[in-house]
User: Fold this.
Amino acid sequence: MPMPASAPSSISAAAQSVVATLPHALWRADQMGSYQGVVTASGYPALDRELPNGGWPHSALIELLLQQAGSGEIRLLQPALARIARQRRIVLLQPPHLPQIGAWNASGLASEQLLWIKAARSADALWSAEQVLRNGSCGALLLWQSHIRGEALRRLHLAAQAGDTMLWVLRPLSAAHESSPSPLRLTLRPARGGVEIQLLKRKGPQHEHAFYLPLSAVIPETEPAAAAPLTPSTPLTTSTARNHGSLDRHTPAAAGAGNIAPALV
Amino acid sequence: MLAVLEHDQVLTMTASAAASGIRPGMRRGGVLALAPQASLCERDLAREQGARDDIALTLLQYTPEVAHAEEDSLLLDISASLSAFGGRLALCRRIRESIQALGFTPHVSMAPTAQGAWLLARHRRHAPGLARQRRSLRLASMQRRLDALPFMILPAARPYQEWLAGIGCQTLADLRKLPRAGLQRRSDKYILETLDRAYGTAPEMFEWVQAPQTFCAWLELPDRIEHAEAVLFAARRLILQMVGWLVAQQLAVSRFLLSLEHERGRQAIAPTPLEISLAEPAWHEEHLLRLLKERLGRLQLDAPVIALRLQASQVAAMLPPTASLFPEPGGAPGAYARLLELLSARLGSENVLKPAALADHRPEIANAWQAATDNSRQRPQEETLRQIQPQRPFWLLQQPLALTWRNNRPFYGSPLSLLSGPERIECGWWDGAATVRDYFVAEGEDAACYWIYRERDDDDFRWFLHGLFA
Assistant:
């Protein structure tokens, strides 16, 4: 509860001194909280401003609630994952589709650092997640689960707190109404050239409205190797998209793009 | 309820048998009259020796100096192991736990001389009420404790029990006060020798247990076991022995074989082999046990198991711990290999994958993964990988999804508009999986980006969804 600053009281003075000695143990609901732990910058200054301590927290369960697979979740995590992949491994646990090695390589993530775990049952997936977290040799764990119970989430959160591995749990948007022990919950919706983020829960003041975060473009404007990852761009630049070796210029398609383009674009 | 007989006389019995009135020295008929349901078995000296050997092998992990001693006891020289295992109390606890895991109940004591420790442990066995005073660290305190012990626990003094008691001897202190020359003349030299060794005035000599060159242990199960998980409890005893052997030989196991032997009879069934290969040689009990547990959990038994055999089929030299001062961020170097083994043991190695990209234009072929524990296939050259870097989505669909065609647009949830393309892929005519496709990046009305392709087949176009940009 925010205390009126003008109220002259001995309790408040005592509280002030306690607060000064314990900066991490106490935060007021109207201030941004701070963790004792380490964070990894998300790579997007606009997002870092909204996250306590200015980045993705280590040793905590982070929930990303997606409208559907392919809402921009990997592009959102890509700068953080790229930083982790320089030294440590990234585990993909029960991803919704096949991860494509070429795409991970192209976005600057060393693909040899990837480990893809397929689990037939949800219990196996949760067990694997716990083993990965307890082992501590991997830098990040991305877990996709559509149905996950509160106890299991709490258990994962505890396992994450014990280690240094970053844990993102990606769940469908419908889970937003369920309670969760996670200290940081975000919903992601696709938006043109970026993603629409709403912070459902964080250690800080309540975040009322969703905000738009421009992400790196799906279609790079220049050569892919030289593409700046953080420039927000309108992806409607068909003519400038020159993908390396992608177009066979000598034999145009039987019904080339020009024939149907007016109807499509 | 169980009693052990030797020469048709009860030698020892379980607590429940003692409660029903069975005493040492009773005959078979008397036991059956008191407790008809009691099961009697003959003493088997060979199996006793086998049990002592098993325990000695297990205890080799705590010190290389283990010796057999008289009356079912083992002597361990732990003076060099104290700091490695966290002090004497922790070491005693671990030794006791190891022996209990093998299914035996130890009496552990500790003293500056081996014979002194032996006497303290024997006394504890004869007087179980005295739980304290089993550990002495200094010679003086050990001698004080030994002085109070009855001389009966000295095996060499037992033949002379009556006349020693007749001249007023009660304790070891009384025995030591007797004139040495007279005692030696009237008894034999062993009493004095043992006393001197116990009190630290004479040197001690031991014949240390030598670990065998290869490891192969066999265990008969007390009952037929029908569930694979239940085998784990018994297998733990064998694993403990193997750990003791590995540490004694300074080796780490990289492959071991657990054979589950079935009942012999008219239909003899070959033992079920369970071979476990480790990516990184290990000698840690908990890691080996966890691997075994996950593998046993997936095993279906055809017939009940009556015995187990554990064999270390491939060993390597034990690697020293890392020499770096600060812990590395990824944990210990072997930790990742251990994680892969554990995951593969439970999920199957085909479900724990690492990238093994192929140089191919077809995305479903280029995007190849292989088992993470499999190191056979060489990675393609970096050059090749770098060259294949066109626009690719993060997610590839397992099966391309056929799209409908509405209002001259491909339709997936909403009409899709094409953002870029086409990227033409025409290859595979040489291996039968010919592909003639134009790939486009498309965007739905909710701004999600898709990777779709148009399959050109004569004049007919069919549209498919093949990937999602995440």
